[in-house]
TrEMBL record:
GO molecular function annotations of the record: rRNA (uridine-2'-O-)-methyltransferase activity
Stated role: Specifically methylates the uridine in position 2552 of 23S rRNA at the 2'-O position of the ribose in the fully assembled 50S ribosomal subunit.
Gene Ontology, cellular component aspect: cytoplasm
Organism for this UniProt entry: Marinicella pacifica
Predominant location: cytoplasm
Reactions that this protein is recorded to catalyse: uridine(2552) in 23S rRNA + S-adenosyl-L-methionine = 2'-O-methyluridine(2552) in 23S rRNA + S-adenosyl-L-homocysteine + H(+)
Positions contributing to S-adenosyl-L-methionine binding: 34, 36, 54, 70, 95
Protein name: Ribosomal RNA large subunit methyltransferase E
Pfam family, one: FtsJ
Domain Ribosomal RNA methyltransferase FtsJ: from-to ranges: 2-178
Compartments in which it is found: Cytoplasm
Active-site residues, Swiss-Prot/TrEMBL: 135 (proton acceptor)
Family: Belongs to the class I-like SAM-binding methyltransferase superfamily. RNA methyltransferase RlmE family.
Top-level EC class as recorded in UniProt: transferase
Amino acid sequence: GYRARSAYKLIEIIDKYDLLSGVDSVVDLGAAPGGWCQVVQQKSTDKLTIIGLDLLAIEPISGVHFIQGDFTDDTVYQTLLDTLNGQKINLVLSDMAPNLSGVSATDQPKSMYLAELALDFCRQSLEPGGSHVVKLFQGEGFDEHLKLMRACFQRVVIVKPDSSRARSREVFAIGMGFKNL
Ligand code: SAM
């Protein structure tokens, strides 16, 4: 079993778009409790570098290097870059979501900000041809964010996994074929 139901969402996405083939390094942002890291670790056949990051601690997963900290914090971001030590990555995952207050006027900008930072990280660390999976909430800023992604990736698709609750505004944007501009 997996530590989080969200694991099934990632399995659907990875299988549909074959996101792990030829991949040797993955960064998972908002990784706790570790479901997505488990999926990546179990699906990988070769030696794969997996780095997870979250505000919250996780129970260790073999083969996963975990960094605890706030991704919006410059020093934490720098720790991630230092850990990579110049190694480019092939796949950046982000299931990050702020603690939802239920007030969309404050939740929406917070979640869009996390998505923007994840995209900045892609620009800095993704290998050309690499992929990005990011959780987004439909609403203010959503279309603009897709535009930004389309500028960076050859192909961008939106997926609403079967395992995602129908009423939730949550979707996943998948960028494939990172362009090194
Ligand atoms: N994909 C995970 C799994 O399968 O186990 C579940 C991720 S959960 C939906 C969202 C996570 O984003 C939470 O664990 C939360 O702590 C994390 N998060 C939210 N804001 C963050 C931030 N600024 N920096 C790091 N992690 C953050």
